[in-house]
Amino acid sequence: MKGARRYFVPNQARMMVFKDGEAFLPGLQAMSAPGHTIGHTAFMVTSGNDALAVIRDLTHHHVILLETPLTEFAFDSDPSQSAQARVRRLDMLAAQRLPMIAYPVPWPGIGHVERAGEGFRHHPAPMILQDLPA
After folding, report:
1. Are 34 and 42 within 8 A, CB to CB?
2. Residue 26: pLDDT above 90?
3. Is 12 contained in some domain?
4. Alpha-carbon gap, residue 80 to 72, rounded angstroms
5. Among 11, 57, 73, 82, whose CB has the most other CB atoms within 10 angstroms?
Protein backbone atom coordinates (compact mmCIF):
# COMPACT_ATOMS: atom_id res chain seq x y z
CA MET A 1 0.00 0.00 0.00
CA LYS A 2 2.90 2.33 0.75
CA GLY A 3 4.17 1.94 -2.83
CA ALA A 4 0.73 2.69 -4.28
CA ARG A 5 0.45 5.88 -2.24
CA ARG A 6 3.91 6.93 -3.41
CA TYR A 7 2.77 6.89 -7.06
CA PHE A 8 -0.91 7.78 -6.85
CA VAL A 9 -1.05 10.59 -4.30
CA PRO A 10 1.15 12.99 -6.33
CA ASN A 11 -0.97 12.30 -9.44
CA GLN A 12 -4.39 12.34 -7.79
CA ALA A 13 -5.40 15.73 -9.23
CA ARG A 14 -4.75 14.47 -12.78
CA MET A 15 -6.78 11.26 -12.40
CA MET A 16 -10.20 10.84 -13.94
CA VAL A 17 -12.89 8.63 -12.45
CA PHE A 18 -15.61 7.47 -14.81
CA LYS A 19 -18.60 5.15 -14.66
CA ASP A 20 -19.39 2.05 -16.68
CA GLY A 21 -20.80 3.11 -20.04
CA GLU A 22 -19.73 6.73 -19.63
CA ALA A 23 -18.41 8.47 -22.73
CA PHE A 24 -15.76 10.55 -21.01
CA LEU A 25 -14.20 11.88 -24.24
CA PRO A 26 -15.69 12.01 -27.75
CA GLY A 27 -15.44 8.50 -29.19
CA LEU A 28 -14.17 6.93 -25.96
CA GLN A 29 -16.49 4.99 -23.66
CA ALA A 30 -15.58 3.20 -20.42
CA MET A 31 -16.56 -0.45 -19.96
CA SER A 32 -16.20 -1.71 -16.39
CA ALA A 33 -14.32 -5.00 -16.17
CA PRO A 34 -13.20 -5.27 -12.53
CA GLY A 35 -11.38 -8.14 -10.95
CA HIS A 36 -8.01 -8.30 -12.67
CA THR A 37 -7.23 -5.09 -10.85
CA ILE A 38 -9.52 -2.91 -8.76
CA GLY A 39 -11.38 -0.70 -11.21
CA HIS A 40 -10.01 -2.52 -14.28
CA THR A 41 -11.62 -0.89 -17.30
CA ALA A 42 -11.88 -1.75 -20.97
CA PHE A 43 -12.71 0.91 -23.55
CA MET A 44 -14.87 1.23 -26.64
CA VAL A 45 -13.34 3.51 -29.26
CA THR A 46 -15.75 4.77 -31.91
CA SER A 47 -15.45 6.90 -35.02
CA GLY A 48 -18.55 7.25 -37.18
CA ASN A 49 -19.91 3.74 -37.70
CA ASP A 50 -16.61 2.06 -36.74
CA ALA A 51 -15.89 0.68 -33.27
CA LEU A 52 -13.02 -1.12 -31.58
CA ALA A 53 -13.08 -2.59 -28.08
CA VAL A 54 -9.77 -2.22 -26.25
CA ILE A 55 -10.10 -4.96 -23.66
CA ARG A 56 -6.52 -4.62 -22.41
CA ASP A 57 -5.66 -7.66 -20.31
CA LEU A 58 -9.18 -8.85 -19.55
CA THR A 59 -7.96 -12.13 -21.06
CA HIS A 60 -4.38 -12.03 -19.85
CA HIS A 61 -3.82 -15.52 -21.24
CA HIS A 62 -5.12 -15.68 -24.80
CA VAL A 63 -5.86 -19.44 -24.81
CA ILE A 64 -6.81 -20.45 -21.27
CA LEU A 65 -8.97 -17.44 -20.46
CA LEU A 66 -10.75 -17.42 -23.82
CA GLU A 67 -11.47 -21.15 -23.95
CA THR A 68 -12.33 -21.39 -20.24
CA PRO A 69 -13.24 -17.82 -19.27
CA LEU A 70 -14.57 -18.75 -15.82
CA THR A 71 -11.10 -19.91 -14.79
CA GLU A 72 -10.09 -18.05 -11.67
CA PHE A 73 -6.54 -16.85 -12.22
CA ALA A 74 -4.22 -16.30 -9.24
CA PHE A 75 -2.84 -13.05 -10.71
CA ASP A 76 -6.24 -11.32 -10.47
CA SER A 77 -6.96 -9.14 -7.46
CA ASP A 78 -10.44 -10.74 -7.28
CA PRO A 79 -10.38 -13.95 -9.37
CA SER A 80 -14.14 -14.61 -9.18
CA GLN A 81 -15.07 -11.04 -10.11
CA SER A 82 -12.53 -11.07 -12.95
CA ALA A 83 -13.98 -14.29 -14.38
CA GLN A 84 -17.52 -12.86 -14.30
CA ALA A 85 -16.40 -9.59 -15.92
CA ARG A 86 -14.50 -11.52 -18.60
CA VAL A 87 -17.56 -13.58 -19.56
CA ARG A 88 -19.85 -10.53 -19.54
CA ARG A 89 -17.56 -8.49 -21.83
CA LEU A 90 -16.67 -11.37 -24.16
CA ASP A 91 -20.37 -12.29 -24.50
CA MET A 92 -21.12 -8.71 -25.53
CA LEU A 93 -18.27 -8.64 -28.05
CA ALA A 94 -19.24 -12.00 -29.55
CA ALA A 95 -22.96 -11.15 -29.75
CA GLN A 96 -22.27 -7.87 -31.55
CA ARG A 97 -19.26 -9.27 -33.46
CA LEU A 98 -17.27 -6.20 -32.50
CA PRO A 99 -13.60 -5.97 -33.34
CA MET A 100 -11.30 -5.94 -30.35
CA ILE A 101 -7.68 -5.59 -29.45
CA ALA A 102 -6.08 -7.19 -26.42
CA TYR A 103 -2.54 -7.04 -25.06
CA PRO A 104 -1.78 -10.74 -24.73
CA VAL A 105 -3.37 -11.88 -28.00
CA PRO A 106 -0.65 -12.76 -30.55
CA TRP A 107 0.15 -10.39 -33.40
CA PRO A 108 -1.66 -8.49 -34.72
CA GLY A 109 -3.79 -8.56 -31.54
CA ILE A 110 -6.83 -7.30 -33.42
CA GLY A 111 -9.73 -9.56 -34.31
CA HIS A 112 -13.07 -10.66 -32.97
CA VAL A 113 -14.33 -13.40 -30.67
CA GLU A 114 -17.13 -15.88 -31.11
CA ARG A 115 -18.78 -18.27 -28.68
CA ALA A 116 -17.26 -21.76 -28.77
CA GLY A 117 -18.97 -24.12 -26.34
CA GLU A 118 -18.54 -22.82 -22.80
CA GLY A 119 -15.87 -20.37 -23.93
CA PHE A 120 -14.75 -18.26 -26.84
CA ARG A 121 -12.46 -18.43 -29.83
CA HIS A 122 -10.39 -15.52 -31.14
CA HIS A 123 -10.29 -14.88 -34.88
CA PRO A 124 -7.44 -12.58 -35.85
CA ALA A 125 -8.13 -9.82 -38.33
CA PRO A 126 -6.49 -10.40 -41.70
CA MET A 127 -3.26 -8.54 -42.27
CA ILE A 128 -3.42 -6.16 -45.19
CA LEU A 129 0.00 -5.28 -46.46
CA GLN A 130 0.22 -2.16 -48.53
CA ASP A 131 2.95 -1.32 -50.98
CA LEU A 132 5.91 0.17 -49.20
CA PRO A 133 8.03 2.87 -50.82
CA ALA A 134 11.18 1.53 -52.44
Report:
1. no
2. yes
3. no
4. 6
5. 82
